[in-house]
Amino acid sequence: MTRRLLIVEDDPGLQSQMRWCFSEDLVVTVASDREAALTALRREEPDVVTLDLGLPPDPGGATEGFALLEEILRLAPLTKVIVVTGREDKENAVKAIGMGASDFYQKPLDADILNFVVNRAFRLAELEKENHDLAHQGNGTNIKGIIAASPQMMTVCRTLEKVAPTDVTTLITGETGTGKEVLARALHDLSPRAGNVFAAINCAAIPENLLESELFGFEKGSFTGATQAKKGKIESANGGTLFLDEIGDMPMPLQAKLLRFLQERVVDRVGSVKPIPVDVRVVCATHRNVQQLIESGDFREDLYYRISEITLDVPSVRERDGDALVIAQSLLKSLGKAMDRQNLTFSEDAINAISSYAWPGNVREMINKVKRATIMADGKRITSEDLELPGSEEPGASHLNLRQVREQAERKAIMQALQTGGFNMTQASRLLGVTRPTLYNLTDKYKIDTSAEAPEI
User: Which one-letter DSSP state was computed for residue 270?
Assistant: First the structure.
């Protein structure tokens, strides 16, 4: 890995001395003021910065140096900043460490000591990167049953990890097949209630006349056939988690009774007059638009506010950048192992078909497609025909062409910088961390109109 060092020093003599202190395998960039330092920070992305606090226009003070330190830590918080101070500037060194600098070095220059301090900072940066990479292995999430690498799903997972240790009532929304029950189980498994019961009930799968007794239980003799008392799902989940799936389909009369339970945390069995206190966490899920149900009079607004103290909106597979292929690869690995076809791989046309297909049935549909393909594939390569998916007209171009993706990102960044800087090329080049000639070359390359009337992208 290339190690990059940025030296921020306004004295040309010290710049030369410091540059020659380091070995040739270190990429060294020098900046003499705040503007040049920020440009180099964006362009070179150094791992370590040595920062002299006495910079113009305040070479005798430290205001400019502290301002630059603050900006470096804001723009690149993982960068290790070593503050360079004079012998009498211990107070500034302490202040810099308090602001977030990783170390300090006092003048006059000593090559051996400076090398030691800088190498220590590089080692610290490397260790932090290794820890970060280890923490994000396994498709970016350590939540059991969740296969994801997209920023959309990572946001949901990070929220879930924060919510899980609490007892707040949580509503999980999303299309059918997106894994709402998997997330509900994850909330339970990551909570202090993990060792207790996880009780699930599908409110849409049980007839209305039976749902009340299933949820709340009943006493002996409360209706024909009730030969003995029975606990309901809520009572059986005492100490654990109750998962109410498809709560949007719950009948209106039961919604009122559920609302009372959520408010009072007591259960009234059918045919009983004695309330039973219950300690249970409630997690709900629905694929329906609850706001529309409220407007149509099919769902109580007060119940909605009770069940949605925290809401997790699960994106569909088509809304999760790159996750379709990640999920398909994981499914192929697990299904191939279960069916003793562990050498199967996806062909190029299958990869493109998986990436371009809309997946209206989400993960549930993908499981069916991959399972069928695992059974039907003739050789060791699964094709788009095995998956019963339409093939891609331009294999690989729309999803796997790195050059095309990079050019699109560059063009978008240039347009944003131009618009932010009022189409002033100097300001835009500073924002992008490139020189003006480089920016002119890029605008020519992408045929970008640099006038103020240029359309937005």
Answer: B
Contact status, residue 149 vs residue 132, Cβ threshold 8 Å: no
Q: Please compute, for residue 368, the number of CA atoms within 13 A of its CA located in the half-sphere on the CB side.
A: 9
b/e sequence 188-200, b meaning 16+ C-beta within 10 Å: bbbbebeebebbb
The number of angstroms, rounded, from the C-alpha of 148 to the middle of its chain's C-alpha atoms is 9
CA angle 286, 289, 291 (to 5 degrees): 120
- What sign has the CA pseudo-torsion 28, 29, 31, 34? negative
Lowest mean pLDDT among 336-345, 386-395, 416-425, 447-456: 447-456
Long-range contacts of 136-145 (CB under 8 A, 24+ apart): 139/326, 139/330, 143/183, 143/186, 143/190, 144/185, 144/186, 144/189, 145/179, 145/182, 145/185, 145/186
**Of 447, 451, 425, nearest in space to 438 by CA:** 425
Q: Which residue has the tokens 């150094």?
A: 46
Residues sharing a CB contact under 8 Å with residue 450, sequence separation 6 or more, in sequence order: 418, 423, 425, 443
Those residues with Cβ within 8 angstroms of residue 224's Cβ, 6 or more apart along the chain or in another chain: none
Confidence tier at 322 by pLDDT (50, 70, 90): confident
Q: Which ranges of 377-435 does DSSP label H, i.e. alpha helix?
A: 397-400, 402-420, 425-432
Give the whole-angstrom CA distance, residue 285 versus residue 230. 25
What letter represents residue 61's amino acid? Answer: G
> What residue type is 342 in one-letter code?
Q
Task: Determine which helix (DSSP H) or strand (DSSP E) holds 160, and give its type and residue range.
Answer: helix 151-163
Q: How far apart are CA 301 and CA 295, in angstroms?
A: 9
- Angle, vertex CA 80, rays to CA 74 and CA 82, nearest 5: 110
What is the rounded CA–CA span in Å between residue 183 and residue 312?
9
pTM of the model as a whole: 0.59
Place of tokens 């800088």: 118
Residue 323 · residue 150 · CB < 8 Å: yes
In 222-249, which positions are buried (b, 16+ CB within 10 angstroms) versus exposed (e)? beeeeeeebebbbbebbebbbbbbbbbb
